[in-house]
């Protein structure tokens, strides 16, 4: 009986071995099953038949405070056998030129996907298996030439868009809208007219294909007198030097003597006739004259309560002066920063004194403890 049992085992083993065909495994391709459903069969991919469904892409990149955002695209890989996935296959890629950075190319659901940033035109070369593919990529970028404008009531200007990455705006639909039309209106071509003292945000929308980009600029409308005061402050601080010791001498200034002189140039005297008070003395005088507007809180700034020519006083120093005030700046209007998640504009601020502040100061001096006065 023992020999019979041995023969049976050998026979069963032989039958099992002859039932399994040889399989050539390929690590870069998934397996399929035979018609019977129980024997793995590895599909063969003829890379020479793989092509791109789309070989040219054009995008309009969104523009943020930090620059142009990246773009994402994809195209179907044609010629891939049914049931085969190339998602895990290794590939090589490169692109021409330096204006566009292509930093992620991969396959997902048998689509060639990519991410890139910059503006201009480049050719992206991709190698999948033994097949070399390429596609053309153009990224356009739009930006406003200025994030803030200052206009005297009744004057006008035109909001200008700068295009990069292409020579033509063909296919881009651009619309303009004033968020405060009673302060400043805007035409279909971007011409802005100043109507009333205050600040209006001009919203510019650009659409290209499925992409929508939004831009903004702040239009600060002021009076001829306040505009002249601002210009005097800006010009004098540009040409002369800061010095507390020589603050009243020709060619010099400090924070309080600068704003005091600027208003005096238009016949407005604050406290003294021939000598500028300190920032604390100036603030105390204006508060007593009921010239205080409001605190310099973030909420008040975003509510656009302040106007060109207002004076911002910083408090809190241990100097035994009025409210511990140690510094003053002339407010020179708002600058556009961004739109928040609810689509509302977020604004920064400009100062007249370019040497110690100037344009686009973000939120310097914005604090509940500080305040502004309007001489």
TrEMBL record:
Residues 1-27 form the signal peptide. GO terms for biological process: proteolysis. It comes from the Bacteria. Gene3D superfamilies: 2.60.40.1080, endopeptidase domain like (from Nostoc punctiforme). Residues 138-214 form the BIG2 domain. SUPFAM superfamilies: Cysteine proteinases, Invasin/intimin cell-adhesion fragments. Pfam families: Big_2 (PF02368), NLPC_P60 (PF00877). Keywords: Hydrolase, Protease, Signal, Thiol protease. GO terms for molecular function: cysteine-type peptidase activity. Belongs to the peptidase C40 family. This is BIG2 domain-containing protein. It comes from Candidatus Weimeria bifida. The lineage of its organism: Bacteria, Bacillati, Bacillota, Clostridia, Lachnospirales.
């Amino acid at each position: 009986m023992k020999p019979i049992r041995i023969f049976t085992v050998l026979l069963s083993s032989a039958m099992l071995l002859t039932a399994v065909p040889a399989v050539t495994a390929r690590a870069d391709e998934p397996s399929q099953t035979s018609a019977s459903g129980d024997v793995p069969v590895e599909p063969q991919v003829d890379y020479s038949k793989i092509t791109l469904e789309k070989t040219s892409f054009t995008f309009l990149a969104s523009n943020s405070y930090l620059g142009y955002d990246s773009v994402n695209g994809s195209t179907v890989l044609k010629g891939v056998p049914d049931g085969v996935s190339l998602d895990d296959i290794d590939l090589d890629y490169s692109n021409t030129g330096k204006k566009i950075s292509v930093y992620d190319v991969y396959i997902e659901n048998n689509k060639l996907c990519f991410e890139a940033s910059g503006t201009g035109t480049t050719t992206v070369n991709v190698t999948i298996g033994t097949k070399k593919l390429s596609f053309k990529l153009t990224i356009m970028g739009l930006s406003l030439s200025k994030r803030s404008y200052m206009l005297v009531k009744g004057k006008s200007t035109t909001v200008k868009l700068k295009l990069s990455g292409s020579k033509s705006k063909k296919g881009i639909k651009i619309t303009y809208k004033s968020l405060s039309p009673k302060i400043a209106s805007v035409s279909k071509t971007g011409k802005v007219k100043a109507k009333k003292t205050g600040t209006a945000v001009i919203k510019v929308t650009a659409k290209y294909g499925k992409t929508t980009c939004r831009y903004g600029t702040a239009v600060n409308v002021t009076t001829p007198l306040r505009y002249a005061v601002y210009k005097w402050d800006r010009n004098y601080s540009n040409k002369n030097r800061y010095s507390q010791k020589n603050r009243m001498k020709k060619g010099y200034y400090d924070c309080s003597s600068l704003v005091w002189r600027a208003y005096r140039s238009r016949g407005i005297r604050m406290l003294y006739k021939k000598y500028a008070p300190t920032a604390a003395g100036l603030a105390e005088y204006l508060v007593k004259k009921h010239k205080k507007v409001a605190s310099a809180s973030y909420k008040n700034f975003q509510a656009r309560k302040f106007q060109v020519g207002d004076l911002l006083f910083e408090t809190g120093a241990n100097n035994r002066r009025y409210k511990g005030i140690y510094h003053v700046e002339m407010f020179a209007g708002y600058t556009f920063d961004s739109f928040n998640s609810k689509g509302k504009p977020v604004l920064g601020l400009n100062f007249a004194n370019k040497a110690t502040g100037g344009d686009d100061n973000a939120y310097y001096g914005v604090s509940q403890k500080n305040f502004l006065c309007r001489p």
